[in-house]
Write a structure and sequence with these properties.
The structure holds two protein chains of two kinds. Chain A has 13 helices and three strands, in the order ααααβββααααααααα. By secondary structure, chain A is mostly helical. Classes of the chains: A mainly alpha, B alpha+beta.
Chain lengths: 322, 113
């Protein structure tokens, strides 16, 4: 368990964290549950999430790597994980926003796929699907600072999608965790040459190396982990575009995914063409300023307020999937 | 004797080495900076991630009566200057640039009351 003052340090430095951003995050997150300290809140969250990850890793990747390092879930809205050394002792931190944002995004992806099956290929159906995607991105983006308030849409998931949701979300989260453990194993926390902006290529290569080792750690389950990486990196690419100040020294999400494919291409049996096409589509969308168009639509009121967008999205799913 | 807690954040992992000439100081390890100034290293955290990367060191300063806080400000600024490490010093809720000697000294004076 991390001490309160350390948690406050870690959260306070987080954009959108308790001290610097939306002070209501913790309250919304706990939803009235009794927590008298940051340590207790962190303990609640860690106890809720960690067993699922360990179980998923054991079953699908035949690895106990997640049990070898302390893992702590911080009550912070960031879509991020990180590795730290506290007086030389390693620990993996997961910001709670990662689970909220990826959970919502995968839910919408799967509901969109269900909706596509019911709409077939009509022109109005295509417009509806485009609208679902735009609303999803808009809601995702408008909740980056407070993802605990994202709408819950699981009521419309079919049983099959529900199983898919658990697989994709847990694999995405475990990918993020194994990536951080890889940083620790590769000694990246011990050799820290200095400011990021002095050696961005060096920093970017370290991220790609950590991704590659994370895949190795998944053993025979690496194809499942790749699905998780895909879910994580798809939405991370959108987050990265929205939070531009992170992007200078980090490789882009698509660069990370392509690097994973390049390094392991001969070891996969699954056809990854569809996934890569999807990644490239969103990269082109971002490079072409698609997200700026979204913001512009928001400014012009075309997507309404975040609450109106939620209501519209829920209305579409209700109409198509109830 | 005045006791003041401070926190130094830097993007250089060499911070402990620059301050104490020790790469990995132990919790509670004490260092004499100049006559009348002792620094106790409480904890250091290395962060490596998307949100923030760098190092945070928690220290307790023990300053003998009559010793000017400028001595401490000079110690920090001089230690970091050579490697051009970017760093901030937090004293209570005030955060100042490590190279701004006057601001560090003033914040220490405020904390000392």
């Amino acid at each position: 368990m991390l001490p309160d003052d350390l948690i406050a340090d870690l959260i306070g430095a987080t954009p959108g964290g308790l001290r610097t951003g939306d002070g209501g995050y913790l309250a919304a997150l706990l939803n009235g549950a009794p927590a008298t300290s940051l340590g207790e809140a962190t303990g609640h969250l860690t106890a809720k999430w960690k067993p699922n990850w360990s179980d998923h890793a054991r079953r699908n990747f035949d690895t106990d790597d997640l049990s070898r390092y302390p893992i702590v879930v911080l009550p912070s809205p960031a879509f991020a994980a990180e590795s730290i050394l506290v007086d030389g002792a390693p620990c993996v931190l997961v910001h709670h926003g990662l689970m909220e944002l990826i959970g919502f995004a995968v839910e919408c992806d799967l509901l969109g796929a269900q909706a596509a099956r019911s709409l077939r290929t009509s022109r109005s159906g295509a417009r509806t699907l485009e609208r679902i995607e735009a609303l999803t991105r808009f809601i995702f983006r408008s909740h980056i600072k407070n993802p605990a308030r994202l709408p819950k849409l699981s009521q419309w998931l079919s049983d099959k999608s529900r199983q898919g949701w658990a697989l994709y979300v847990l694999s995405a989260e475990v990918f993020a965790l194994l990536h951080e453990i890889a940083h620790i194993r590769l000694g990246h926390l011990e050799s820290f040459p200095g400011p990021f902006d002095d050696a961005s290529t060096y920093w970017q290569q370290r991220e790609l190396d950590a991704d590659a080792l994370a895949m190795e750690m998944a053993g025979r389950g690496r194809e499942i982990l790749l699905l998780g990486a895909w879910s994580f990196l798809w939405w991370f690419s959108y987050y990265q575009a929205a939070e531009k100040h992170y992007s200078n020294y980090y490789p882009t999400a698509i660069a990370r995914f392509e690097s994973l494919i390049d390094r392991h291409a001969d070891r996969y049996t699954r056809d990854l063409g569809e996934e890569l096409r999807g990644m490239r589509a969103i990269a082109e969308f971002l490079h072409g300023g698609g997200h700026l168009e979204d913001i512009d639509q928001f400014n012009r009121g075309q997507l309404g307020t975040p609450l109106e967008a939620q209501q519209e999205l829920q209305g579409i799913f209700h109409m198509l999937l109830a | 004797m005045t006791t003041i807690r401070i926190k130094i954040r830097s993007d250089s992992q060499e911070l402990p080495k620059l301050l104490f000439d020790v790469a990995a100081p132990a919790p509670g390890q004490s260092f004499g900076i100049t006559p009348g100034v002792e620094v106790v290293h409480e904890r250091n955290i290395v962060r490596h991630g998307l949100v923030e990367s760098g190092i945070i060191i928690d220290l307790v300063l023990k300053i003998a009566t009559g010793v000017a806080t400028k001595v401490v400000a000079d110690w920090i600024a001089d230690a970091l200057k050579a490697r051009k490490a970017k760093a901030t010093v937090q004293i209570n809720d005030k955060v100042v640039d490590s190279q701004d000697r006057a601001a560090v000294s003033s914040a220490l004076d405020d904390a000392a009351g």
